[in-house]
Design a protein that fits this description.
Number of helices: 12
Number of domains: 3
Strand order of the largest sheet: 1-2-4-3
Oligomer: single chain
Largest sheet: 4 strands, mixed
Radius of gyration: 26 Å
Shape: elongated
Length: about 300
């Protein structure tokens, strides 16, 4: 497994380290770094100068132990070294852009890409927790027993339902990961109670006994499976086995839960045509909320039927 770094990632991490007021490198080393860096401005060729800057910064990146802060948590997951061709680190500008992904291509094989804010280097313990959690995601993706599939596409579901499924899935996966890390006596960014609060918020429509059962099973599961997590995330109310709209279920058109279902079988032809134009897989048996039906009734009235 090769380690690769984006230029601005290494540069930012080195400068954060060099500017630390506490627990930073010795002043003499910092002075040597800046002197060596100043000399590189004399290189006239831009490409050669950029390469020289990167090589110098990478040298000090390793000298000051920053690479070890990344590799240490990665070594806790043997599948990464065995199955990844490359582990790439790039700089994330904001928190929501942070995370790890697995990319598979015919030329480069499997590559793990970690987006990380360089500010995390100022908090080594927090950095280790974050990396451990993200490496666990990649490890699951590589593990045949987990059975990961990057496509979370559910036929017949609209964009809002697909997005909600992905959000639920990510929460369930995070719980399963931090449960395993806790069992292995590893510190985590999200503790059991924090995860439980988020879980109760997302699955608040379940009775408490059901929430206790599912959450506890996720937290202690040592071998979770992608298919099981997706089944809970995509159909938590068990509606796929029913044939009629259920009070409190999501409208197949807007994706919002509703108790006000319209009689879809009694819709006019223009209204049904307007719905099917946007949702080709929709059928009257799936139903629709009254708000959506009213919207598509207006749309249908404005759209002439094809002859």
């Amino acid at each position: 497994m090769q380690l690769r770094y984006a230029d601005d990632f290494v540069e930012g991490a080195v400068f954060i380290c060099a500017n630390r007021r506490r627990c930073g490198p010795p002043p003499l080393q910092i002075r040597r770094f800046h002197l060596a860096r100043e000399k590189l401005y004399s290189i006239l060729d831009p490409d050669a100068r950029n390469t020289a800057f990167f090589n110098l910064q990478l040298e000090w990146f390793r000298e000051w132990g920053l690479e070890k802060m990344l590799v240490g948590p990665a070594d806790e997951f043997p599948l990464l070294r065995r199955m990844l061709n490359a582990l790439v680190f790039r700089r994330a500008r904001i928190q929501r852009d942070e995370g790890a992904e697995l990319y598979v291509g015919p030329e480069n094989g499997r590559s793990g890409v970690v987006a990380l804010r360089i500010e995390r280097f100022d908090r080594p313990d927090e950095l280790a927790c974050f990396l451990r959690h993200e490496f666990a995601h990649v490890n699951d993706m590589l593990d045949p027993a987990f059975g990961y599939s990057p496509e979370v596409h559910l036929p017949g579901r609209n964009a809002a339902q697909q997005r909600l499924t992905r959000e639920r899935y990510r929460l369930l996966w995070d719980i399963a990961i931090d449960g395993r890390l806790t069992a292995a006596s590893r510190a985590t960014l999200g503790g059991r109670e924090q995860h439980r609060v988020a879980f109760d918020h997302v699955f608040g429509f379940w009775p408490e006994s059901r929430r206790n059962e599912v959450f506890d099973a996720l937290w202690v599961d040592r071998q979770p499976r992608h298919a099981d997590l997706l089944a809970i995330a995509s159909d938590p109310r068990g509606l796929d086995s029913t044939h009629e709209p259920v009070p409190g279920a999501a409208c197949p058109l807007c994706g919002f839960a509703t108790f006000a279902w319209a009689g879809a079988h009694g819709l006019s032809a223009p209204t049904r045509a307007a719905i099917c134009a946007e949702f080709p897989h929709w059928a009257p048996d799936q139903g629709a909320c009254r708000r959506c039906v009213e919207i598509y009734r207006i749309v249908g009235a404005r759209t002439p039927l094809a002859v």
